[in-house]
Amino acid sequence: MPEPLRQAVHQLVSEVVMNCQEVLRYTEPDLARDWKRMTLIRATDASDTMDTASMLIAAYCQRTGMALDTLASYLQTRQQRSRAAGPRDSDRHEVDGMLGTPLPPEDDQDAKMRFSMGQGYAEDGLMSEPDEQRLFTEACLHGLRARLCDDVDALDSYLPPHVAALARKIASVLEEPQPATV
């Protein structure tokens, strides 16, 4: 990857990480009044920024002679859908599963599958052991944000104690070293 493109991708991915951290931050109870607006805004900001990174890489690939059908395959254009279309039935079935009602029609296998996926989120969120990789990722994002904002003490006000402790550890590792005194 050419250095200028690499630098751009690194910058864009850093922006995405910050937006993802904001999504997680706005799910916390102390920000309940703004969660709908801010989680949607930051999630779409992250998505748009990754689209920008993808298109920069695609433009480079196109400039260097990649065939358009290969490029379309790598961009996974068959999976693409517009947010402007709003939530799909499958999204609504998944939310129904998370919330427990209404049950999908017996003859709609896709609806039943998505409903079941939603039930899985609800059950996993309430009953299973926490996923250590997910907890570590959340702690990294919160620790990074706390270090950048110089607000490490605030972690205790909105995170579960075990996540806040890990985020503090991560933030301390990110602390800038002080110059040695002579």
- Per DSSP, the total helix count is 8
Radius of gyration: 21 Å
The low-confidence runs, each spanning 5 or more residues with pLDDT under 50, are: none
Outline, from the CA principal axes? Answer: flat
The main sheet comes to: none
Number of strands: 0
Helical percent range? 55-70%
Percentage of residues in strands = under 5%
The class by helix and strand makeup works out as mainly alpha
What can be said about this structure in brief?
With 182 residues, the chain is an all-alpha fold.
What does this protein structure show overall?
With 182 residues, the protein is mainly α. Helix content is 69%, strand content 0%. It contains 8 helices and no strands. It has helices at 3-25, 35-63, 68-74, 89-99, 109-127, 132-149, 155-158, 161-174. The longest helix has 29 residues, at 35-63. The protein is flat and about 75 Å long. The mean pLDDT is 86.
Write the layout of secondary structure elements.
Layout: H1 3-25, H2 35-63, H3 68-74, H4 89-99, H5 109-127, H6 132-149, H7 155-158, H8 161-174
Brief descriptors of the model:
single chain, 182 residues, mainly alpha, 8 helices
